[in-house]
Amino acid sequence: ACVRAASSVPTPTNAPDFPAPQATSAAAASAQACHPADLTTSSNSSVVDGAVVIGLTLVNATGKTCLLEGAPQVDLRDASGNSLPIQYIAAKLDQTPPLPSTLAVTPGESAIISLGWRNACAPFPEGKVTLRLTLSTGETLSAVPENLSVPPCADKNSPATVVISPYSYPP
Fold it and tell me: What is this structure's pTM?
């Protein structure tokens, strides 16, 4: 599955507030949280406006609707599994209607997460970087973004940041 990079990089905010959870259908009301075994993943990346934009696509590979709940919990890891020195920030998206914080994913349907990585001044590893997503169940799944590059250092006095958008459906 191919993920399209957003036309702009999400804007950081210090207030990681997403809308309150809500079920959107009868199927969603009876659905349970997605588990790693329920989902197939793919990930790619591109450079946009001085940031590396990483897209993660999650496809429901089961015969039942499952829920992606809450704000995505994501971190980037080196080839040894160590977390990279990055500050993670929830995106502030001014959108009407706002994106729900619980997304019902029907069988075969996709959901996406977009990340905007900026200001990589610390020594970052060359080679494979893995994106790890922790689901609301506490379980994790991993994906290796295709064509991932390290963003340029813009300010040595500021941390590297990754701005995380909420779960959404592909455009």
Answer: 0.79
